[in-house]
Amino acid sequence: MSTAPQAPATSPQRITHDRLAQVLKDPAQVSSTIVVDVRGDDFEGGHVRGAVNIPSHIVLDDEKMDTEVIQRLEAYPNVVFHCQLSQVRGPKCAARYYAALAHKAGSVSAVKQQVFVLEGGFENWEQHYKGTDLVEE
Questions:
Q1: Whole-number Å distance between alpha carbons of 103 and 21
Q2: CA distances from 20 to 7, 9, 43, 106 (A)
Q3: SS percent in the chain: helix, strand, coil, step 5
Q4: Which phi and psi angles does 91 have, rounded to 5°?
Q5: For residues 102, 107, 108 and 113, what is the CA-based torsion angle, rounded to 10 degrees?
Q6: Cα(94)–Cα(11) distance, rounded to whole angstroms?
Q7: What pLDDT does residue 44 have?
Q8: How far is CA 105 from CA 32, 80, 83, 99, in A?
Q9: Residue 83 backbone dihedrals phi, psi, to 5 degrees
Q10: Mean pLDDT of successive 10-residue stretches along the chain, which has 137 residues
């Protein structure tokens, strides 16, 4: 999500709501980023524009990680995970996804994706962007 080439981080990094909003508003960047909402049924009550819903129990399931999660997300250079507050489920899912990528690639240094956790989760996002096109109901 940077303009300068960077080596991927060795673990999921935090991304602010401001930075993610910039990415989602920029046609040149939005296609390289996928937002993963790991909440359950509350996804339908509102979510980040364009986010996909992959509940945490699926991300944390070893069999589904390889057959569903990685296959669905691996085409995107940037993956942003979040839950309601990004205190437990979002960070745990991001770390699990990153570990699965490293295992598949053979090492952490071989991981090509940037994996992020949205600071403050959807609650923070909604406080800043409710009523805009960055929140879908």
A1: 31
A2: 19, 17, 18, 29
A3: 45, 20, 35
A4: -65, -40
A5: -50
A6: 9
A7: 87
A8: 20, 19, 26, 10
A9: -130, -150
A10: 51 95 95 97 93 97 92 96 97 96 89 95 97 94
The catalytic residues are 83
- For tokens 């909440």, the residue is 39
Residues 48/35, Cβ–Cβ less than 8 Å: yes
* Cα distance between residue 129 and residue 36, in whole Å: 17
With b for 16 or more beta-carbon neighbours within 10 A and e for fewer, the 75-92 pattern comes to: ebebbbbbbbbbeebbbb
Q: What's the CA gap between 71 and 54, in Å, rounded?
A: 13
C-alpha dist (Å) from residue 2 to 22, 56, 105: 11, 28, 23
pLDDT computed for residue 1 by the predictor? 57
